[in-house]
Amino acid sequence: MTSKAKPNPKHLVQGDPIPPLKKGVPRLFSFRFCPFAHRSRLVLAAKNVDYELVNISLSKKPEWYKTKNPFGTTPCFEHDEKIVRDSSIVCEYVNDAYPGVNLWPEDPYRKAQDKMLLDYFGSKISPPFFKATYHPPPSSTEDFLAVYQKELYVLEEELKKRGSAFFFGEKPGLVDFIMWPWFERWAVLGEDFHRENYPTLMGYCGRMKEDPAVIEAATPDEIYQNNFKKQMEGNPQDDY
């Protein structure tokens, strides 16, 4: 597997034609700054799948995109006219459909534990992150960053309890790749985010950043920060 970041093509917008589907070559419709699409890019890289990346502007979507995904969201995975959408479903599909290492535990109970952790992450940890950063509720006075930091202790303690380098084990698995995009976006959290309070997670982040799939799907911190600044100014920018 390459250890270089995968090139990011320009985002397609209204008026742009649909790219022709190359027979036998899967493609992922993605938005560079969408953490859900980021999940899929990580798993495709971990499974060493050769695919075409098609970036879609979510603020100025091409008219044809709803024929691929009627919800208009990313990711959307297409292979020989078979379409799979929703990030968790795409990740599981790619893991099951392509050869190579199985990114789920073989043991049914360990697999259930990973799925329960992901359920907790999706319901309790990622929502306050979004509300503290990209999507602050306009009339709320709740300190969502404080809520997020409190919930992070659940992950800190869970990784300690597992006693492994990654949540999956000694190598990253689906549980890691599905949560990782939010860790990579720590770059947009300000000085009130006290990452030093999570030494186990800090070590985990250092190890994840050395993983070839994470490197291939990565976006530099300064690009996240510039994109976040533009979005908060009401002038979001897709391409850098």
Automatic annotation (TrEMBL):
Residues 107-236 form the GST C-terminal domain. The keyword Transcription does not apply. Its EC number is 1.20.4.2, 1.8.5.1, 2.5.1.18. GO terms for biological process: glutathione metabolic process. GO terms for cellular component: cytoplasm. It catalyses: methylarsonate + 2 glutathione + H(+) = methylarsonous acid + glutathione disulfide + H2O; RX + glutathione = an S-substituted glutathione + a halide anion + H(+); L-dehydroascorbate + 2 glutathione = glutathione disulfide + L-ascorbate. Signal peptide: none annotated. One of its GO terms (molecular function) is methylarsonate reductase activity. Keywords: Oxidoreductase, Transferase. Residues 24-102 form the GST N-terminal domain. Transmembrane segments: none annotated. Exhibits glutathione-dependent thiol transferase activity. Has high dehydroascorbate reductase activity and may contribute to the recycling of ascorbic acid. Participates in the biotransformation of inorganic arsenic and reduces monomethylarsonic acid (MMA). Belongs to the GST superfamily. Omega family. This is Glutathione S-transferase omega. It comes from Strongylocentrotus purpuratus (Purple sea urchin). The lineage of its organism: Eukaryota, Metazoa, Echinodermata, Eleutherozoa, Echinozoa.
